[in-house]
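agent> fetching stored inputs for the zinc ion docking request
agent> found them:
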Amino acid sequence: MMLDDLEVINVRLPLAAGGGLFKLRIKDGKWSSIEAQEGLVISDRHLPISKLNFDELRTTREIDLQERVLLPGFVDVHMHLDKAYSIAHVRNRSGTLLEAIENYRSVVPSFSKELIRERIIKSALRAASFGSLTLRSHLDVPFHLGREVAFRTVEAALEARETVKDFVDIQYFPMYFYDSANHRGITEFAEETLRMGIDGVGGAPHLAPDPEAGIRWAFELATAFNRPIDLHCDESDDPEVKTIDFYCDQVLLHGYGGMATAGHLCSLSAMAQKEADRLIGKMADAGIGTVTLPVVNLYLQGRGDHGNVRRGLTRVKELLKAGIPVAAASDNIQDPFHPFGRGDMLQIGLMTAYAAHLASEEDLDTILRMLTHLPAAIAGVPEYGVSTGNPASFVVLDAGSGEELLQELPATRWVYNKKRWIYASELKQQWTNPIAAFLP
Ligand SMILES: [Zn+2]
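agent> prediction call returned; pasting tokens
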């Protein structure tokens, strides 16, 4: 049900300067005013959000948020929706990246298009129910297993996006050269998928036999279609693995600053300080965006270490200090690459706070930005955030401050997107299956 005119009072905006409470108005689905309140407003006209069931919520034009936090919809900029929730079919005994890849590859031909489509729909809708309203998913397109297997995932992904488009936006970046970009016909395949509606070019050059050839190939493809590139980079504990070096060269060569993203960058943490400084400086010059994937790095990396096991994740603080955008994202959810997770960015925020030592009062703002504004910039989301004129796309969380978000990980959330409330985990009646709540 459309509800594009709305007024909410007693709102906490932890990302706004000054703290305090706010009164916000939405007109035609856009923020039309953002006003700081003098203090708590007592109003009979505004109905308390905690008392509204979902049907009442969808028709009430004046709502009292009762001092709860409101954030722009989270942007989960690095996911694998096609693999999510596959753990019942494929596990990982060693907990290493290589076993995860091998095991997944051995079963992927047995996954039907319908099964992959259902997994994407489920994981995207669950993410939306937690407040993530823009998702970027990498896709497994194992071209060496045949065109049909590779196209199956692309078709499933595009169909799933169509099914959930009224709830959440999805961008797709297939990992075209996970193994090698040398397979006959792979360029034609990739071009065809970009014409079908795929958004950008993905890959994992550190896993390819010739990383530089793979990166060059990615740029030829991306520049021909003027599409962004998002590569898995150096997901390894080995300090000698540094495909980011050549990636930066190519970003500079092609003027791809702002259009290129590097995920993981684990080996950067294992390098000597001088070499890490050189690469961080180069990334800043190139204008590359970065994504840290703390839960998956903590799970997959450091598996050869004993005693002081490395954390695996990249140098988050140093990258931020160099002015490089660093987003935090989910990566894998309940699959052989990561057995836990649910697409909840608050969990990711909490894990980032621990793993990157970002837990002071000032760091909290950084963590919240790594889940919202920074990934929005990396994903190129237009008109993002709670500002006048921007589309109103937000999540209300059952917490009274930004800090409480990470202290309590509140389960109760209300999600508004595309001119209507799309989800509410009601206090009395928790929906365990968002899909059932979402679809008519
Ligand atoms: Zn990934």
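agent> quick read of the result: The chain has two domains: 6-72+386-438, 74-358.
agent> awaiting further instructions
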